[in-house]
Amino acid sequence: MIYVQMAWANLWRNKNRTLITVSSVFFAVVLVLFIRSMKLGSYNHIITNTLSLYTGFIQVQGKGFNDTKSLENSMALSDTQLMSVKSINEVTSVVPRIESFALASVKNRTEGVSVTGTDPKAEAAMNGLNGRVTNGKYLDPHSKGALVGEGLARRLNVLVGDTLVLLSQGYYGMSAAGIFAVEGIIRLPLPDLDNSMLYLTLPTAQWFLSMQGRVTSLAVMIENPDKENQVAAKVRKLFSDNYDVLTWRELIPDLLQGIEFSNASGIIMLSILYLVIAFGIFGTVIMMTAERRREFSIMISIGMKPKQLSFMVFIETVVIAMLGAVSGAVASLPVLLYMKANPIPLSGQLGKTTLQYGFEPILPFLVSASLFVHQGVVVFVIALMVSMYPLWSINRINISDELRA
Amino acid sequence: MAVIQALNLTKVYNESEVPVRALHNINFEVTDGEFTAIVGPSGSGKSTLLHILGGLDRPSEGKVTVGGVNLNLLSSTKLIEFRLFNIGFVFQAFNLIPVLTARENVEFIMLLQKRSAQERIKRGQELLDAVGLSNRADHRPVQLSGGEQQRVAVARALASRPKFVLADEPTANLDSKAAGNLLSIMSDLNKKLGTVFLFSTHDERVIHRARRVITLRDGEIESDKNNSR
Fold it and tell me: Which of A176, A312, B36, B226 is least crowded, fewest Cβ atoms below 10 Å from its Cβ?
């Protein structure tokens, strides 16, 4: 206990030295938290936007559909199954879909199109598709017509009210053909989608492709992305082995790889920052050790063992690291919460580009307990590693030389 | 009985290109109850000798025995433990632990020795009484004068019940009155407790209070005689 008391008293014996060291840890924590919060916020923003528009966090599919996107691998989906997925606590919305391909023909123009049959209300709830209508109207549950991507409409040269013919192959090789009125034009964020996407209501698509009561996927959105695996497990329990329950990581590995690559480069930058921080703290610790070598020598000369002295100095460093890490985290919290509520708007070309990709032009921040714990622990560990220097120094001290100096 | 024996002590520093011989062939004994001064001009080897006798440094040649124990044969850790139980130190610059009060500074040594709280408190009080500082026991070093700090240092040096106390220029930073006072206290404690005091000095006020004076010059003993007062 005496060592703890002495360590605490030592800290305040030279307030300036202690405050300088605490400040170096404090600013390190604030800086890494700010940078990491922004980076993780951006990833979260990209993932949430992408998943809400396309796959959802989790998808239920017919067995093998992810590998072979054929209607033969579609699945029967009952209202009971739909409701039971909806009733899982963490689930915010579910969208049953049919995804297929067709040839769209208008007068003498024919284009390949991606046909998506969906529940318009559920789709709007999941990704605000209704807000993307630029002309005409959004689909209602009883619509028999189609919603066409702006780029596709241009390629087919159709306007709202025009009709187009769709030709495809339905379930079990049935021929599929239908005439659909264009009810609305929508602007989709990605050019590839905008140039090829055509939406029908789910019943219309089921009629068109002769697959009543069947869908190709059930997209599931959840409230907390961290619980993705947990929810996936719950969903899996609701379906037999004839279904696949996949997370977005399995559905769109490209997105995952892109984020992991970006994250890896971010971590390299962060490591460089950690290194700078470590040397900053190391500098103050070297200064502190040099100032106290004589004091350490006196204590050893009167009978204090180096390990007892090291323990006392170690406590001092732990307290400094904790003061810096905790105060840094506490000071960062309101700032990050403010930034989360008021993300930095992206203006100019960057903002326009972001908007074109269907993302809100903002630099969002992520605030989570794990962020604080991870960064706090890393800086704390750095401080502890740096504290090895005085311990090393104490064990190499030449008492006689120091006392003579 | 010999408390300290120095046999053929030689110390050579090889840190510079030319080796520096600080001590050469030093031989002497210190017996129970001695109050001995080691004197000599700056650079004569006084501090080096005290450091070697106190186990703070090791000789290049020769050996030191304290109470029959050859310090050369002790590992660094054993040597620290040996110092803790057998040797008291008083330094020129007082060197009290700044964050502890006078009482805590005295008790700290006994804490390192793992003595009971009851014993620590009792002996701490006795020693502070002996150096006339019981009324300043709860003051920190910064709140004490130089003379008071050095008296606390003497009490601290005696707290471990050492075989001898080494004092390196104990009065160098004190005025005449404080130096005289300190010498009186050290002398009284030497007589009362029988603890050996061995101190280096070139202060005439101190030299004439010593009962034995060993004079060093250029790392060798120039003279070793009893002081007639």
Answer: B226
Beta strands across the sheet bearing B87-90: B87-90, B164-168, B196-201, B35-39, B212-217, B220-226
Q: For residue A262, give how far its alpha carbon lies from the nearest alpha carbon of chain B (Å).
A: 51
Between chains, do A305 and B95 touch, taking CB under 8 Å as contact? no
* pTM recorded for the entire structure: 0.69
Residue of B81, B97, B168 to mutate when probing chain A, most A C-beta within 10 A: B97
- Give domain limits for chain B: 2-226
Q: What is the mean pLDDT of residues A327-342?
A: 92
B60 touches A: beta carbon within 8 Å: no
Q: Tell me how crowded residue B67 is: count the other CB atoms within 10 A of its CB.
A: 13
- Give the chain B residue whose CA is nearest to the CA of A6: B99
CB contact under 8 A, B91 and A299: no
DSSP conformational letter for A207: H
Interchain CB contacts (distance < 8 Å): A and B: 55
Looking at residue A227, what DSSP letter applies? G
Q: So what's the pLDDT on residue B228?
A: 62
Whole-angstrom Cα Rg for chain A: 31
Say if B98 is an interface residue toward chain A (CB within 8 Å): yes
Q: Residues B221, B214: contact at Cβ < 8 Å?
A: yes
- Rounded to the nearest 10 degrees, the angle between the axes of helix A369-386 and helix A388-395 is 20
**A251: which 2 tokens?**
């559905």
The answer to whether the CB atoms of A10 and B99 lie below 8 A apart is yes
The residues with which A96 forms a beta bridge, in sequence order, are A218
User: CA-to-CA distance for A67 and A53, rounded, in angstroms?
Assistant: 21
Q: Indicate the pLDDT class of residue B174, thresholds 50, 70 and 90.
A: confident
A-chain CB neighbours of B57 within 8 Å are 399-400
Q: What's domain B2-226's architecture?
A: 3-Layer(aba) Sandwich (3.40)
The whole-angstrom separation of Cα B131 and Cα B158 is 11
Q: Do B98 and A13 touch (CB under 8 A)?
A: yes
Q: Can you tell me the mean pLDDT for A201-228?
A: 91
Q: Which of A10, A295, A300 sits opposite B80 (nearest CB)?
A: A300
